[in-house]
Amino acid sequence: MWGCGALLGARTRSRLWREVLVAWGRRWSAAAPYSASAEPSRVRALVYGHHGDPAKVVELKDLELAAVGGSDVHVRMLAAPINPSDINMIQGNYGLLPKLPAVGGNEGVGQVVAVGSSVTGVKPGDWVIPANAGLGTWRTEAVFSEEALIGVPSDIPLQSAATLSVNPCTAYRMLMDFEQLQPGDSVIQNASNSGVGQAVIQIAAALGLRTVNVVRDRPDIQKLTDRLKSLGAEHVLTEEQLRKHEMKNFFKDMPQPRLALNCVGGKSSTELLRHLAPGGTMVTYGGMAKQPVIASVSQLIFKDLKLRGFWLSQWKKDHSPASLSMAKPGLSGFPGVQRQLLPLGVAHGLSCRCSHV
């Protein structure tokens, strides 16, 4: 419902999808507390039976609701966004593909309707979000295993809860894992008005980091600049401004970035590298331009720049179950990351509303 319409290809169909998901959220978020006795036998879902153009292969279907087993949780979806990874999965060009036919949607928030006899972590009325990608959140309700869900407080904004598990967690890990940044250090990123970009702005501001945020030029650039600055962005520049010779004087008033976050590739990523401090790191987590990342030999040799990649799904796979304990110091596991982000959702209304990037 808070999707990146530019990535859906057909604006009309993307608006239709969002209207369907918004309608579900409005209908169920105002509902009274649920009980198992009210459990329906069929639900509606956006399903695809083969990979291809989402506008052509996704269909709204009625599905049968599975019975609730001992370790199962019946969830009624409150809100579900549309992410680039959702579209990539449907197209068949993502690193993780569910078995077909599949329900679309990797992210969202739902409310527990009923639980099985052996479920201890959640109870009816609780809010839950997916623990991993591929759960299929574009549906009115479903029965999931308890281990597929993570409970979140119900007193954070609905939009923040629905968009907590992908973009903010990606932003947080990239800010924490690649450079030992301290308050006052700076970070540069492109696609700054994307979901991850907006999360980077807000989390960086909460950590005392300064951000240089690059976006594509557009007629309403001042409106976008004002919105990103309202989230905590210190500087907002267009791709064209970043390429100007005058940029060499820009970092006289602030430290050169030690970390660059690249979601675009091509010339945009080359410009990020050009402004990185010696020994800095550029982390690539997307490729919206569908062009390769190009680094000059001199940047690698004389500036000792590092090129890294990040994929949240792989990060979760690489961490042992022991590290997922919310009681561990540093909250290093995935639920722990989300617990770290919850104060932002409450205090700052952590928002990743995405427009055309």
From TrEMBL:
Keywords: Fatty acid biosynthesis, Fatty acid metabolism, Lipid biosynthesis, Lipid metabolism, Mitochondrion, NADP, Oxidoreductase, Transit peptide
Pfam families: ADH_N, ADH_zinc_N
Official protein name in the record: Enoyl-[acyl-carrier-protein] reductase, mitochondrial
Origin: domain of life: Eukaryota
Family affiliation: Belongs to the zinc-containing alcohol dehydrogenase family. Quinone oxidoreductase subfamily.
EC number: 1.3.1.104
Gene of this entry: MECR
Species whose genome carries this gene: Felis catus
UniProt keyword annotation of Transport present: no
Subcellular location(s) of the protein: Mitochondrion
Domain Enoyl reductase (ER), residue spans: 52-331
